[in-house]
Design a protein that fits this description.
Number of domains: 1
Radius of gyration: 41 Å
Oligomer: single chain
CATH class: Alpha Beta
CATH superfamily: Zn peptidases
Shape: globular
Largest sheet: 8 strands, mixed
Number of helices: 8
Strand order of the largest sheet: 1-2-4-3-7-10-8-9
Strand content: 15-25%
CATH topology: Aminopeptidase
């Protein structure tokens, strides 16, 4: 009997040891969660987001600027006189070598305003674009800039070839006033381009007008010997009629309410009218002479008109 009790006692001891070992192993696998650091985060309020840098001011325009390139990649240069916000625009050389004397009179104006800057009225800038069609001038004269008019010996065929730009388009048929792709010059058909302002020269003028406050425009052509008012799908602006008479009276040219020798589509000066800009066409008497003394008088009268 004692032996039985002894065996039972030993069995209980062994069983208790096993239970102890198992409990110890299970608790050894447990690791306490690390305590969360509840210390407040300190924010450095001196550090702020960087503000964007201000955009640079546009560069001040110099006495000359390139307003675009021709179909052949030649620069179209503008000359600026005065510093007023409103501009009086003078344009020559639209028909390149065909009417090369319109470039000559515009270059004469550049020299005149350079020597006499005070004739530009206060509050205005006078801008001169002597050669709107450098491709055509180069075709006839062999240059895109200044030249000696007395030395020009081009025949009629060479002059006609120089009327158009490098794409063979008549620039003065490429503006958005009654535009047509098949246009007319005298008794022949000419190209008005694939769409209004399809040509870079016309586009350069449009962009310049969009970017600046144009108070009035004078554009030289040849040949007819007169000053013509502009209009497009409506009556002539009163200021255009005044400008026509002012220039014509001072220069000694006859004044006309419109150009009606033949139908013109896509005309630049008429597009100015559509944009509500007083504008006139001054047609020199022939294709060779700049008639500078007459046109100087007309220009001075226009400048005085805007000064009043």
């Amino acid at each position: 009997m004692k032996i039985v009790y002894a065996l039972i006692f030993v069995a209980l001891l062994v069983l208790g040891g096993i239970v102890y070992v198992l409990q110890k192993d299970s608790t050894s696998d447990y690791q306490a969660e690390p305590e969360t650091d509840t210390t407040d985060v300190v924010v450095d309020e001196s550090v702020t987001e960087e503000e964007p840098e201000p955009e640079p001011e546009p560069a001040e325009r110099g006495p000359e600027s390139v307003i675009g390139q021709s179909a052949n990649g030649n620069d179209i240069t503008a000359y600026h006189f005065g510093s007023g916000d409103e501009e009086i625009l003078f344009v020559g050389g639209t028909h390149g070598g065909y009417s090369f004397n319109t470039a000559l009179v515009a270059f004469e104006l550049v020299d005149y305003l350079t020597a006499n800057p005070d004739v530009v009225p206060e509050g205005y800038t006078a801008t001169v674009i002597p050669v709107l069609n450098p491709d055509g001038l180069n075709e006839t004269i062999g240059t895109t800039g200044r030249f000696d008019g007395a030395a020009v010996t081009a025949n009629d065929e060479a002059r006609v070839d120089g009327r158009f730009n490098g794409n063979g388009v008549d620039i003065n048929r490429n503006f958005d006033c009654q535009w047509e792709a098949e246009a007319t010059w005298q008794n022949r058909d000419v190209s008005g381009g694939s769409a209004p302002f399809s040509e870079p020269e016309a586009l350069a003028i449009r962009q310049y007008v969009d970017d600046n406050d144009i108070a009035g425009a004078v554009v030289w052509y040849s040949q007819a010997g007169g000053v013509y008012a502009s209009q497009c799908d409506g009556p002539t602006l009163p200021a255009t009629t005044e400008l026509t008479d002012v220039f014509a009276d001072a220069a000694g040219y006859p004044a006309f309410a419109e150009f009606d020798f033949y139908e013109i589509t896509g005309d630049m000066v008429n597009w100015f009218a559509k944009e509500r800009i007083p504008a006139i066409s001054v047609l020199l008497t022939d294709h060779e002479n700049a008639e500078w003394s007459k046109n100087r008088a007309g220009v001075n009268a226009v400048l005085e008109y805007f000064a009043e």
